[in-house]
Amino acid sequence: MAEHDRLNNKKQNPGSHDPESDTVKLPARRSQSVTAALASSTQTEEQAPDKPGLPLKDSEEPTEALSKVKVPETPVPTRPTKAKLQEKEQAASTKGHKNKARELLNAQALRERCRQLCTATFFREHSTIRSLGFTSATAGEGKTLLALATATVLANDSGRPVTLLECTWERPRLQELFDLPRGQGLAEWLRGECSEEAIRYRVSPELTVIPAGNAAGQAMKLVHLLSERQLLSRLSNSQELFILDLPPLVTSGYGALAASLADSLILVVHAGVTSEVLVSEACAQLRDLPVQGILLNQIESHIPRWMRQLL
Question: Which of 217, 149, 151 is nearest to 187 (CA)?
Fold first, then answer.
């Protein structure tokens, strides 16, 4: 009877310890189908997306689409070699030397042209000309440059005192070019505000500059005063020569009146820029005045940059 109870107890508790056999009997293994189901469930939970309710295929589609986008390759700039850099520097240096040589040739040609002009004007036999004026139809044609170059050449070659007189008040440049003090010039002297010595600025042993000064809106009155009282003769001694930078004829109301101050005149024309109509009008205003000739500026060569700044 006791044996029968022991056997029934084993059937109800299969994992119990049998003291007689000293053996632990484990429960029976699960079937392969149950194990496979559990494994499949575990794998699905690990691969599930972070967002709940989103199917796996939907989450994989953007990644798959992005992987097909072709990103253009960015070209990596290459550094020029040392030989190429030296070649570029040499080419730039050669170009700079050529430009400088060309500018020197142009400057030399300009001086020679001014020298010929001075010889024909002041040093002819029985010549009584003591003042040469440079005018133009409009501003910016180069008359100030030519007046300055002519005065410099004349002072260096003649050995006589030369005065560069600025008679234009629209665009006075001599004060700036020679860094002269402000407030004293031809206008102030004509109004009696200063002495003649105060407006004379010697820039070289034989060259004196008289700037225009501040006309204060009285340019016509000042030029008329200078012409009527022949004050130009008071500014000179017996040996002094004058180069006049005159106002333009067409764009200035007192251009023709100022041109009458000079013993001889040069009409400066910017070749290829000034129209024939303007040149004809300028010549008409100079009809009764002593015009020596028309000078075509920049017709064959370019004036150097440092000279163009003087225009």
Answer: 217
pTM of the model: 0.65
Q: How far apart are CA 259 and CA 226, in angstroms?
A: 12
The answer to whether the beta carbons of residues 164 and 134 sit under 8 Å apart is no
Q: Reduce the DSSP state of residue 251 to 3 states and report it.
A: coil
CA-based R_g, the chain, Å: 50
DSSP secondary structure of 141-164: SSHHHHHHHHHHHHHHHH-S-EEE
Question: How many Å apart are CA 257 and CA 133, to the nearest integer?
Answer: 12
Half-sphere exposure of 95 (CA within 13 A, CB side): 6
Distance separating alpha carbons of residues 152 and 204, to the nearest angstrom: 9
HSE-CB of 121 using CA atoms within 13 angstroms: 28
Per-residue pLDDT tens over the stretch 124-138: 888 889 999 999 999
- Provide the sign of the torsion angle of the four alpha carbons 187, 193, 195, 201, taken in this order: negative
User: Please, what is the average pLDDT of the chain?
Assistant: 78
Could you give the CA distance from residue 292 to residue 309 in angstroms, rounded to a whole number? 27
Residue keyed to tokens 């009764």:
288
Order of strands across the sheet that contains 291-297: 201-204, 207-210, 162-166, 241-245, 131-136, 264-270, 291-297
Strands 201-204 and 264-270: unpaired
As a whole number of angstroms, the distance between CA 170 and CA 214 comes to 10
Spatial distance between the Cα atoms of 197 and 209, rounded to a whole number of angstroms: 11
Contact 263, 166 (CB under 8 A): no
> What does the alpha-carbon distance between residue 113 and residue 109 come to, in Å, rounded to a whole number?
6
The residues, any chain, with a CB within 8 Å of residue 171's CB and separated by 6 or more, are 139
Q: Which two tokens mark 276?
A: 């024939």
